[in-house]
Structure formats: structure tokens, C-alpha cells
Amino acid sequence: MTKSAPRKVPPVVVIFGDEPHQKSVALARTLDRLLPPEADRQLAVTTYDASQSEEQGGPTFAGVMDDLATLPFLTERRIVVVREADRFVSAYREKLERYLAAPSATGTLVLECRSFPKTTRLYKACVAAGGQIEECRKLTGRALADFVMQEAQARGKRLDPGAAARLCDLVGQDLGQLAGEVEKLSLYVGQRPVITAQDVAELVGQTREEKIFRVMDCAGLGRVSEALTLWHQVLATDPDAVYKALGGIAFVIRRWIEAQQLRADGASVAEIAPRMMMWGRQRELETLLRRLPLGRLTELLAAIGELDSQAKSGRRSIETGVEELLLRVAAP
């Protein structure tokens, strides 16, 4: 999240970007900063939904201006929030520029939208007026894992990078959902100060695909006994796994092939790891790439196709075929 330097009480606040959780947090923080705790927000804050037309109750420019000009009651400032404001900004861009040349002394306009380009005159007018502009963009890679660790720290817990990466693997990029899972994990561990990867596995759970990924990671690292044990656990706990296993294994091998190609193009392991969803696991990736050169991975991918063909014709079972495949992957 990037911020411009605001003055103490900005006449306008723009919160924009494609990450809804960050925008929600930024809006709440803005209201907390502009209004004292004792302020009655029902009196001090007016909120419009600009995704609705004026006929549906959406904001008019005149109505927003009237609210900003109205003297606040029992507080020093009046806040007018326009949510989903892209269409509102487009319709009234020039009028907003003129307003910001002489904004209300007691009102703050908050615009929440998806886009707010720096090249526009309105952006420059906001900066010139002493406004605050915050961008909230989707997080990826290390920044996503850092967000999860910061959420844990805010709750008095420590989440190591490996556990954070696993949580991101399981949940995805939705920051609101990730924050919710961290909250549940914090309650789950109770008085313990550390949230471990095992806690993540037990509480958040794993998809069938994630279980297959763990099996393949162990095999690729040469831990054949662990890989076979995990494979038998998958079969025992998930009756449908056998029908989906080959697709998951093929996906992992294609991902490793991509990693080898990136390495051949000059990328470092540290650069490749986030693309492989292996945050904080560079050493494991280094071992995988060393043990499984491109030619060997291509042969393994062909073997999966052959196993699939044999299983469909009834000449071989997937269960034993996968075991043999894991032995080949784990071989020195």
C-alpha cells in the first residue's frame, strides 16, 4: 500500500485499488483518524453507494456538496463517503477539480474506487489541496506471506515463513479470508505464542491437490519412505484421490519443468521460488532442481501419460503405478 503525504486534516481522501480487504481497512482507519472516539458516526458520517444510479438512491453531485457544506453536529468534522465511486468521479471530474480549489473547511470527502490515475488533473488537484491518496493492490509472493505474518503479530502470535507460505497456498490471495484464517489459528493455539505449519494443516485443512503436492515434494527431495507413507494416507482418507492423482502429479512435474526453464534463462532460485508457490523454501527448490534435470522431468511426464493409458485400459492399477512413479522420482 503506497501513500502520499497528507496534511493533518485532509479535505479529501481517495482509497483506490483492486484489493477489497485493504480498502475496507483503510476506510476504517481513515474514519478513526478523522473523528474522535466519542463522535456519533450516525451524525458525523454520510455514506453513498455510487454503484447505484441517482434514481436508485445513488449520489448526486449537488447532494454530496450539500452534505460537505453542512456544519457538523457535536463534532468538529463531517465525513462524506462515496463507495464504488468510479462512475461518480468520471461523471463529475471537472466539478470535483473546482471543488478542491476551495474545499469545505469542516468536511472531508472520501472517495473509494478501483482506479485513480496519477496522470489526471483530479489526482493533481487532490495533492495540491493536501488530500490523502492510498493505493490498495493485490499482494503476491513474499508480500502476501508478509501480510499473513503481520496479521499474526498483530494478534500477539508468531507465524514462521514456512507456515505463512502454506497458509497462502491453501487459502489463496484473498486478504480478508487470510486474515480470518489467522484469527481462527490464533484462537486455536490458545496461549502458545507460535503458530506452526502443523497448526495450519490441522485447522485450515488441505485439498486433495495439496496432499498430492506434499507427496511429490517428498519424492522429489529423495524422501521416498515419507512419500510412500503420505501416498498411502491419501488413499486411506480420500477414496476419490486415485481418480485425481495423475492430474495433480502431472501438474507438479510441469511446474518443476517451468522452474528448470526459468533457471536456464538465468533466473535465480530466490526469483523462481515465489512463482512455484514455495515461499521460504528456496533450499528445497534448489535440491529439487539439482536432483531432477529437465530431461528426467520430461521422461517422468511421459511416464504419467503411459500410466494413464494403461489404467484406462485395465492393464495396470493407478495405486501401484503411482508407487512405482514415486520411486522413480525419488531415485538418486
Strand content: 5-15%
Instruction: Quote the average pLDDT.
Output: 86
Rg, rounded, reads 27 Å
Domain count, please report it.
3
- Rough shape? elongated
Q: Report the top-level CATH class of the largest domain.
A: Alpha Beta
Helix content: 55-70%
* Gap between N and C termini: 45 Å
Describe the protein's architecture and organization.
The protein is α/β, with parallel strands linked by helices and 332 residues long. It folds into three domains: 2-136, P-loop containing nucleotide triphosphate hydrolases (Rossmann fold); 141-204, Helicase, Ruva Protein, domain 3; 208-330, Zinc Finger, Delta Prime, domain 3 (Up-down Bundle). Helix content is 60%, strand content 11%. The strands form two sheets. The protein has a six-stranded mixed sheet with strand order 1-6-2-5-4-3. A two-stranded parallel sheet has the order 7-8. Helix 11 (208-220) runs parallel beside helix 17 (318-330), helix 12 packs antiparallel against helix 17 (318-330) and helix 16 (294-312) runs antiparallel to helix 17. The longest helix has 24 residues, at 241-264. 33% of the residues are buried.
